[in-house]
Here is the input.
Amino acid sequence: MENIQLQVSGLIKRFGTETVLNGIDLSVRKGEVVVVLGPSGCGKSTLLRCMNGLEPKSAGTILLDGEEVTSDSKKIAQLRQKIGMVFQSYDLFPHKNIMDNITLAPVKVQKRSKKEVEQDAERLLKRVGLWEKRKAYPRELSGGQKQRVAIIRALCMNPEVMLFDEVTAALDPEMVREVLDVILELAESGMTMVIVTHEMQFARAIADRIIFLDNGKIVENSPPELFFTNPQTQRAKDFLQTFAYEKRRTAIN
Amino acid sequence: MQDSGISVLFMGSNFLRLLEGLWVTLRISLIAVILSIPLGILFGMFMTLKNPISKAVSRVYLEFIRIMPQLVLLFIAYFGVTRAFGWNLSADASAIIVFVLWGTAEMGDLVRGALISIPKHQYDSASALGMTKIQTFIYVVVPQTMRRLIPLTINLTTRMIKTTSLVVLIGMTEVLKVGKQIIDANRFEYPTAALWIYGVIFLLYFLACWPISILAKKLEKRWR
Ligand SMILES: Nc1ncnc2c1ncn2[C@@H]1O[C@H](COP(=O)(O)OP(=O)(O)O)[C@@H](O)[C@H]1O
Ligand SMILES: [Mg+2]
Here is the structure.
């Protein structure tokens, strides 16, 4: 296929004797948005962490732009500049203000001029409505604001791929939207993304393709409409069922 | 105020002698702290290594220093080492060695605590941004560790200042000893001198430690 941005083949990951990922094959095209779903503990985070080399793989290959994601520490640091990641836990650097959180890596890792990076940061902060917070420290921000900053911090490295690992899972419900909107906007701008989420409506809206992971394998790989309306496997049906609520009580008479 | 003990303070060079006595222990504390900080940082980093042997070695060292009263360590250094090896360590040198050993152990434990208190996701997010291990250490780990460490280090310094008065027991003439000498010399003429002298010593210690504690509190507040 043309324009493969990220190619995972035969990926196996074990923790001790536990095989968490057992032969994952997945390719993500440029500009494609892939949403990874699956029950808790099925290895979604592990898959993402293998994709940017945070977790060394047990077997298989992962190619980013045709380059192997190795565990060689020098090379992987280089490669990670192309692949941004945002986590579930708020992971801003507590000793730096918002602007310095964003500019640290582009300046120190990519050796870009601070001024140029600050211009990028300004544009992005304004777009998500956090420009006034540039001098604030992470502890002064709400969870939703912190996650938006974390996204911008990753974007300022000008990555080709973004990985999102349940970035709204730790948020209060009313803050979920403001973060998901930023990701939706990113999708419109054509960013290649792999997203793990438990927000089903969001998944349906943003995905070009849904990957359903269970027992260390991809058991479904289909367009969102098909996955949500007509899942092919019983496991996916059961999984989707856990998000559905039925009216149990009839009216009180 | 006839016969008041306070006048003893201003007789001859008494007050100056007290200050000199205080300086004996302050100087030892300062030297010990200045040497203990870099050694403790190295020791603390050594303690975080995953290697079981380095872990055991550092554990034994830390426990040994903690279990032994500083007084015993001082006696071992001053009398024991002299006997056993025939080295003639001065009281000054013994005191500095003992307090550096103690300071390194305590500082090391503080450094270890600060290092392991940095959450794993700080390392993850730094790596995910393309930082190498060294860059992560310099820009993410060290600044956060420092913030936690500075107030703790200052507290260690004040503890050091207070504990170094033990050197009197290996024959050094520190402030308490000077005070005692002054009191003894004036025992009959000014029976109330003891109160004044000890009061002044208390004040001197307070003046030495108080600004340091204030500084610690300030930094703690600023770097919450
Ligand atoms: N560092 C680790 N050491 C050992 N086991 C791990 C580690 N990380 C994850 N696991 C295990 O791998 C499995 C998948 O975890 P994870 O990828 O976090 O799942 P998910 O993100 O889908 O909830 C879990 O059973 C978890 O206990
Ligand atoms: Mg997870």
Summary: The domain at 5-222 of chain B is CATH 1.10.3720.10 (MetI-like fold).
